[in-house]
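=== RUN LOG ===
request id: a7f3
mode: sequence -> structure
chains: 1
length: 372
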Amino acid sequence: MSASVCRWGFLSTAAIARKNWKGIRLSGNGRVSAVASRSIEKAQAFIDECSAEVPQTGDVAAVGSYEELLARDDVDAVYIPLPTGIRKDWVIAAAKAGKHVLCEKPVGINEEEVQAMVDACSEAGVQFMDGVMFDHSGRLDELRRTLQAEKTLGKLRRISTHFSFSGDESFQQSNIRTDSVLEPHGCLGDLGWYCIRFTLWAAGLQMPTHLSARTLTWLSGEASEGEVPGEFSAELEFPDGLSAAFYCSFLTVNQQTVLLSGDLGYLTVDDFVLPFYDAEASWGTHQHVLEIDNCRWNFRRHSQREAIAEYPSGEANAAEVNMVRKLADAALTGKLDPLYPELALKTQQVLDACRRSDAAGGARVALSPKAS
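=== RESULT ===
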C-alpha cells in the first residue's frame, strides 16, 4: 500500500458510485485505481464519463469481473454498491482478499448476513463501514451539543423522522428498489435505514425495547417475484420514556425532516439525509411560549436558525468526502474504528424487528436480547 494514498476499487458502476468517485478525488488521501463491472466495456464507459468531469490522480483500470478486481495488488479498499440481495458474498470475499470495505445500505437481508460480513472484516483486520454519509457531517457534532444543552431542549422525549420521494410509474415498475429479490426491504431499506440510523444517533445509540411497524402500501416491479414495502411507518419505544416514530415512502413528495422534542423546546432539520444545495448545513431550535393574561392569549414564536459552514456534496468538507477519507485513514494506519460495524448491526436489528412486526400485522414486538 502507498504510504499516503488509499487505492480504491469499485465493485459496480451504480449511479451513487459517481458521487463517491468525486469524494475520493477530493479526500486528499485516496484515489480510484480500478472499476469492475460485468463487462469491461461498461466499466470503461463509467471511467470515461467520470474522468471527463473529475479526473483521478492516476490511471484507472477497467476490470471485467469482480473477482479480478479483488485479486489486484493496486486496490486497498473497495466500495460495494451492489444490490442488497447479492452483497454479502462480495463483502466477505473482499475481506478475505484483505480489502477494507465501504458498502451501500441496507447492508444485508437480515442481521445474520450483516454479522457474517462484520465478522469477516474483523477476522481479516479490515475496516467495515456502510454508506450513510450524514454520519460524517459536522452538523451532527453541533446537534449533539444542542441536545446536551440543558436549557435548549431539556429532556428529550420524542424523535420523529421522515424520508420520502415520489417515484413515477417508471420507477414503480422497473426500478431495482421495487424488486423483491434484489432489494427485498423496498423503501424501508432504501429510506428507512436513514430514519432508523438518525433515531439511534439521537437516542445515544441505545436500542429500542419494543416497536410496532406496518407497510402502508406495497409495490411490485413488473419483473419482481413479490411485493416490497413502498410506504412504511413505525413506532419505537426506548427506556426512560423516550419514544420515536418514522415514516418512509416511495409515494410521497420529497421530504427529509427530523423533529426532536424535549420538555423545554424542540429542534428541526429539513434536510437530514441529502443537505440542501448551500454553503451551510442548518437546523432550527424552537421554544415557543403561550402567554395568557385574562382575555389576551398570545402564542409567541421563539425560533432560532443555527448553521455551520459545510457544503452538501462535491467539496472538501462535504459528508461523503469525510466518509471516504475516514475509511482511507483506517486503511492507511491500520487503526480500525469499531463504531461503524456497531452502527450497521444495530440499524439492521431495528430493521429486522420492523419486518417481524409488519409480518404480524403491526403487532408490538420486543427486540432481540442481543440487540443492545
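=== NOTES ===
The chain has a mean pLDDT of 96.
The first strand starts at residue 6 and ends at 11.
=== END ===
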